[in-house]
């Protein structure tokens, strides 16, 4: 067994363990943290596959941003585990059926019949000066230009839609307008002098 | 000496792991010393700014103060709050310090003087600094305290917001240098103009934004709402004592040194001499090793961290968010376009 194979098995074992923990832990915060571990180890496996750009971006996007927001929300929620568990046994047969169906579907697509070493020979190791990031970038901006741009536009629409859906005007909220604050001038803007008769 | 060199080469051929471990120790040990004396520098500098002397009792002129602090913290009791999640409570400080140390793996201290010379160095750095937030979030949640939790929530929102501005500032550097490798980025700043060839001039807005976002990412004043001692006592590490607290402290200062060193590397020419190619001064300072310049630049940027802390009052939370999202991100996007055009049209002096 080569060293790389050993590393792969270690990472794979951690990944399977973390993924199992994600769906079995009672506490959602623990589940989210195990999901972080799962992302991290899959990034390690991608590094072994010489896809360092994707591996680092996986850590950057999913671990560094998405999961932080997940945790943010999950920690704030006051989840009652008893009500969440209610109906578990009742729905179990249906859930198992769906899970088995999905498993079969996944196996049909990525099973050994379609993806084994006899279908795709192992790629020869790339030279050490091979730049995964640069080659990915050049392919993305030449060959796959339109799909890439369409994906970008769809994402932009999704962002705007998300903001549009959650934005609500609250007239009772008090807030400051910084552009008005910086335009304030000495004198009348800051103080107003009132004239009034002297009282006894 | 020859014997040592031959032993080193033998290690490189037969036991690479041992050789790499020795290199890591060579990087981390001085770094820890720097962290210790950075705390001393902070107390002294802020002391003098506030017209007092600062620590001056332990050792000559107080030079042994950081050692005394470290020994004190090591012997203090570790109190684990009842109802705290013990495992996560103890893992959290390590998660703060770990990424701060791991980031140094790709950091070039000189031409070719780097532990791991990887292509995607800059990307690796962004990824690791974004992982650092977990220490804060987990500690806040695992402490089972409202103050900790509030601090963690504030900090998480702040770090996630400023990460974007920071990442965009780094995209500007990457466009200007044409490489993600940190060594290449420094070499792209080399030229006969000395310090006027460095990226701080063409990327000036990004330079400022990177530094300010760095201050916000490390939760330092004036962005220290995560700690906010007058509002939420000490924020996410309020329940920590003894060594776990010390590890948080180490992590914070290691992160500050990292941000300072990266600012020096990406915008201030790294190990390059500021007088490179100048008529008289260039030759005069030729003998200074590059690592000395790097150290001086890092110390210069690090001084700003302390200066800011002594000068500015704490930002209000909504103003922090406004600065990050509505001011910094638009500026970085505009400046990335400017730099893109400058690179495409090979603007003279920097990009020709």
In short:
With 200 residues, chain A is an all-alpha fold. Chain A is built from nine helices and no strands.
List the helices and strands and how they pair.
The complex is a heterodimer of chains A (200) and B (352).
Chain A: H1 3-24, H2 28-48, H3 52-76, H4 81-85, H5 88-110, H6 112-115, H7 132-140, H8 145-166, H9 178-182
Chain B: H1 2-14, H2 16-49, H3 65-75, H4 86-102, H5 121-131, H6 133-142, H7 146-177, H8 182-187, H9 204-217, H10 229-232, H11 242-266, H12 281-284, H13 290-311, H14 317-344
Helix pairs in contact in B: 1-2, 2-3, 2-11, 2-13, 3-11, 4-6, 4-11, 6-7, 7-9, 7-14, 9-11, 9-14, 11-13
- Averaged pLDDT of chain B: 85
Helix-strand pattern of chain A: HHHHHHHHH
Distance between the termini of chain A: 101 Å
List unreliable stretches of 5+ residues of chain B: none
Q: Roughly what fraction of the amino acids of chain A lie in strands?
A: under 5%
Q: Over the alpha carbons, how many angstroms does the gyration radius of chain B reach?
A: 21 Å
> Helix amount of chain B, in percent?
55-70%
- The helix/strand series of chain B, from N terminus to C terminus, equals HHHHHHHHHHHHHH
Structural class of chain A: mainly alpha
Number of helices of chain B: 14
Q: List how many beta strands of chain A DSSP finds.
A: 0
Q: Quaternary state, please?
A: heterodimer
- Tell me the number of helical segments of chain A per DSSP (H or I, 4 or more residues long): 9
Average pLDDT of chain A, rounded to a whole number, is 84
């Amino acid at each position: 067994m080569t060293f790389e194979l050993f590393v792969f098995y270690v990472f794979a074992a951690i990944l399977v363990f973390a993924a199992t923990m994600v769906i079995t832990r009672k506490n959602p915060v623990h589940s989210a943290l195990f999901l972080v571990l799962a992302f991290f180890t899959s990034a390690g496996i991608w590094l072994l596959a010489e896809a360092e750009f994707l591996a680092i971006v996986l850590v950057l996007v999913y671990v560094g941003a998405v999961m932080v927001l997940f945790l943010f929300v999950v920690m704030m929620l006051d989840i009652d585990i008893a009500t969440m568990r209610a109906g578990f046994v009742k729905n179990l047969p249906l859930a198992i059926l769906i899970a088995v169906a999905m498993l079969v579907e996944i196996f049909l697509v990525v099973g050994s019949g379609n993806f084994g070493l006899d279908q795709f020979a192992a790629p020869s190791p790339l030279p050490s000066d091979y730049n995964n990031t640069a080659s990915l970038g050049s392919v993305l901006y030449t060959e796959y230009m339109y799909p890439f741009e369409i994906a970008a536009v769809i994402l932009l629409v999704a962002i705007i839609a998300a903001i549009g859906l959650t934005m609500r005007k609250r007239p009772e909220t008090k807030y400051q307008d910084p552009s008005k604050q910086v335009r304030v001038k000495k004198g009348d803007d800051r103080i107003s002098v009132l004239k009034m008769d002297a009282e006894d | 000496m020859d014997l040592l060199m031959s032993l080193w080469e033998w290690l490189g051929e037969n036991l690479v792991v041992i050789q790499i471990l020795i290199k890591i120790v060579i990087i981390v040990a001085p770094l820890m010393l720097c962290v210790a004396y950075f705390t001393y520098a902070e107390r002294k500098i802020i002391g003098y700014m506030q017209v007092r002397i600062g620590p001056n009792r332990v050792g000559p002129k107080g030079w042994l103060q950081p050692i005394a602090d470290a020994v004190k913290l090591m012997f203090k009791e570790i109190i684990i709050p009842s109802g705290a999640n013990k495992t996560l409570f103890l893992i959290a400080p390590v998660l703060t310090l770990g990424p701060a140390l791991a980031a140094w793996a790709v950091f070039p201290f000189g031409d070719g003087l780097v532990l791991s010379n990887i292509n995607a160095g800059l990307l690796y750095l962004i990824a690791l600094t974004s992982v650092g937030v977990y220490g804060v979030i987990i500690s806040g949640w695992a402490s089972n305290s409202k103050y900790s939790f509030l601090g963690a929530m504030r900090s998480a929102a702040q770090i996630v917001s400023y990460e974007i501005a920071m990442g965009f500032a780094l995209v500007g550097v990457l466009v200007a240098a044409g490489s993600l490798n940190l060594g290449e980025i420094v070499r792209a700043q080399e030229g006969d103009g000395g310090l006027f060839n460095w990226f701080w001039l063409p990327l000036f807005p990004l330079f400022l934004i990177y530094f300010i976002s760095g201050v916000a990412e490390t939760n330092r004043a004036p962005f220290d709402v995560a700690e906010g001692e007058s509002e939420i006592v000490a924020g996410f590490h309020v329940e920590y004592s003894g060594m776990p607290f010390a590890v948080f402290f180490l992590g914070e200062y290691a992160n500050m040194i990292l941000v300072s060193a990266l600012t020096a590397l990406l915008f201030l020419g790294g190990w390059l001499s500021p007088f490179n190619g100048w008529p008289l001064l260039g030759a005069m300072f030729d003998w200074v090793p590059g690592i000395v310049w790097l150290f001086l630049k890092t110390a210069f940027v690090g001084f700003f961290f302390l200066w800011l802390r002594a000068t500015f009052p704490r930002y209000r939370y909504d103003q922090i968010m406004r600065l990050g999202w509505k001011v910094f991100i638009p500026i970085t996007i505009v400046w990335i376009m400017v730099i893109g055009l400058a690179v495409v049209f090979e603007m003279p002096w920097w990009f020709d």
